[in-house]
Amino acid sequence: MKPASNWSVLLGAAFLMATSAVGPGFLTQTTVFTQSLGASFGFVILASIIIDIGVQLNIWRVIAVAEKRAQDIANAVLPGLGTFISLLIVVGGLAFNIGNVAGAGLGLQVLLGISAEWGAILSAGLAIGIFLGKEAGKVMDLFAQILGILMILLILYVVLTAHPPVEEAFVKSFAPDKFDLTAIITLVGGTVGGYITFAGGHRLLDAGLKGTAALSQVKISAISGITVASLIRILLFLASLGVVTQGLLIDATNPPASVFALAAGNFGYKLFGVVMFAAAITSVIGSAYTSVSFIKSFHPVVPRHENKVIIGFIVVSTFIFISIGKPVTLLILAGALNGFILPITLSTILMAAYRKNVVGTYRQPIWLTIFGILIVIVMAGMSLYVFWSQWQNLLQD
């Protein structure tokens, strides 16, 4: 693979992961948590970024060295485990994709004045068009990069108009006044939970970038993806914080749209339409591509007709949205599910890193393994705590 081609693939995988993480739920969660936690939400973002780094570096490296997709690695660790993980990820990916399609429809509704349903249909048509050609992978990479950069620039403009207290946000990122475990689980689950953490790793594998010789490039791609996703979240946090600290009332029915409108008027509202559409359509593509990559090992017919299966995934997601409307509850449940999936998938990858039948003579850096184990323990503990708290609340109600 030529160096120029290498950079295209590395950036493509990075932006595919980042834009998969930055969906409609991402925009809403960041705004809502900023409203409730204020500048202290910066600490949650910092914690989620640190966890993201440990997760991505472990998973992407093992996938590259093993030269296998995550489900095949899991099956090598324990027969049947890969199938179980695939089922969890595909179900979660479908749930998220329904919300992604809904978000794309909402974005076009703001921009064009059409119904969210018609917006969803047009968005699905665009996503499907990407997978109709023979060079779908390259088109997908370029599409994710262009829209990812566009989102950064537009949100940066809103930050500048919102005038957030940057110094306060920085200080409270390290010394928060408030702390919320649910916020951390939701953010981590939405950034590296479920299918998202494997989006870039599987893309690099499909593009032929694999083996121990490619580890330095894999590291660059993984860190680039985390940087892009983190930058977008930080900018959105600052934009929301600027609005909140001015005492302006955020509309609970559509928090991110309200932030854009309050910060930059009607023009800001239109910018929200662009950002929402860009965030949602890239997530539709990333979710469909990665979810289908988890069933490619099930039957030879899937890899032979991969693009058609991806198109089918998008069609089903769109049909469900049009049939039942925007699935807010489903989106929340999918986020929680991703938070639970992460300890399972990461612990599986950590075990695989020390199995010769998976990675051969490769040795995983011990600091990275310890980092990964700590994340598994912390995420599993927090997930169980949040689940128990929610269960207790449900019993009391």
TrEMBL record:
The chain crosses the membrane at residues 37-55, 76-98, 110-132, 139-161, 181-201, 222-249, 269-295, 307-324, 330-354, 366-388. It is a multi-pass membrane protein. One of its GO terms (molecular function) is cadmium ion transmembrane transporter activity. Keywords: Membrane, Transmembrane, Transmembrane helix. The keyword Cytoplasm does not apply. It is found in: Membrane. One of its GO terms (cellular component) is plasma membrane. This is Divalent metal cation transporter.
